[in-house]
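Rotation project, supervised by the postdoc (A.L.). Task for the rotation student: set up a whole-complex structure prediction and record inputs and outputs verbatim in this book. Inputs entered:
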Amino acid sequence: MGDTVKKEEWPWQDAYGDYSMVPVPKHEKRSFTSIFYVYMGVLACIAVLWGGGTIGLQFGLKDAILVAVIGSAILAVIGGLTAPMGGIAGTSTYVNMRFPFGAVGSQVFGTIVAGIACGIGWFAVQAWLFGIIVHTLFPNAAWANVGVAATWGGLLMIVTAIIGFRGLAWLSYLAVPFFMLIAGVGAMIGIANAGGFAGLMSIMPKQPAPLSVGITQVVGMYIAGGIITSDISRYARRAIGGALGWIIQIIVFQVYMLTGSAMLMLATGASDVAGALLIGGAGIGAFLMAILGQWTTNDNNLYNGALSFNTWIHTKKWHITLGEGLIGVGIAAWVGFAAGASMDPFMKFLTLLGKILPAIGGVLIADFYIFRWYKKIPFKKRYKPQPGMKIAIVNWVGWLSVGLGTWIGGWVMKWGIAALNGLILAFVIYVVLAIVFDAAGVKIAVGEHTINEKGV
Amino acid sequence: MNFKKYIQITMIIVVVISIVIIALGAVKWSENPYTGLIYLIVGVIQFLGGVLLFPRIAKLEDMKEVGNRSVQANWLVLSIGIAGMALFMAPFFRLEAMAIPYIAFILCVISVLLSGFNIFTAVKKAKARMIV
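Outputs recorded:
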């Protein structure tokens, strides 16, 4: 009887582990604190400090703060809109993508957004960055060679990702408060080096950049995270919890971290954050920052990547995590051994990322908030799958909107913030086309796929 | 010993440790304000983590829930304790008399060990979740 009741409440089979294809059941939902910490774990990374450092080299402190606040506010809005999708449906971004893109669309776009970009690309880049930082801190040690450190660092990161959400949360609980403190230490070192806060305010970079360049950098740096917030928010007890967690961490803590590292770089003029911290006297804190910062972020990259690959590779999620992790480690080690301490691959990767991802986010937001509202689907029932539910194989309007949004926003338009251009364009194109064609009786859904109890 | 009682006693120890760290920070503020500040931050966070747990578990009868809340508080104490261990001895926070950083370091070690054991005990005895 008990089993019958349970089956009625949650009619799914978690065949692949970590609820990768099915809604997270109520008894597995987590508190706001947990969700907030995991988001913070993603944020608490060297890349964000590095981003802040880049801002510190291009702007005076006042403008650096302005850039951090505006860029973070844009990201807060994007993530604040995507997080409730996971909170309501209890499913990951890639499962949610089946609605605006169709079953095949979710596989293709999910693989681009999270599988290739996060699970392999970002993972490899961050493992490589980890190698660079460890090498900066210990230039003479064989184990700190860029390629060698990228390898052992990458393998460490694979472990927590394989454990799943629990692994991410444990590590975040451990690392996040520490990381917040070390960002503060960076600010202290900056102030001390500049001879006080007033001294820091008076320092100006040799070649100041326009504000829009800095805002684009801040948005481009983390827009991928803003689009795939549902991967974490699906575990939130309340739908609003994931959105709130995201907004607070971005508005408060990202600004704090960007500003802290900008202050450090502005005052020291050093070329990298870890080296500046070490020279500034942060001691072993600089090393722990390098390890924990990369670890907490990169296990999330793998985690998100595995969730997306699971939409078309139907095996246990940890098999996928291990596979993509090893590919990423291989790339990082190769770049480490071949390119040494060059920053080029990182910058090129970021540029490409900023152009491809936002349009997908724009379509998701347009479909969830506007098109489903237009179709009179109650808010709390949107994107909620059921076994036996029929969905499209391809939603061509979603595909077209992403293509046009990415192309026009990323390559044709020469003004504004590239990432934001793509997102807004795809949003508008999707809303207009979907509503017009639906009103005209033209089918936007091609083919039919039935969701089974494994969520496939 | 009752788990709730055990947690309350150990958190009193954590609170006392944090007060000592705050006091050390206040004493050394004039010598190096950054050192004073980092001691204060670590001390205050540990203090809040410990003190706020008391009202949160005061009226709870369900041991699992007591365990869950103590896990949250102890994760915070553990993490910030590790940060203190890593930073108190760093060159930037160096003081003329190194006895004080050593004392602060040892206090952080104690709070880290205690909070780590508390998490273990909460999971083992109170069947709490390691993540809540």
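Student's summary: Residues 98 and 106 of chain A are 5 Å apart (CA to CA).
Supervisor addendum: Confidence is low (pLDDT under 50) at residues 1-8 of chain A.
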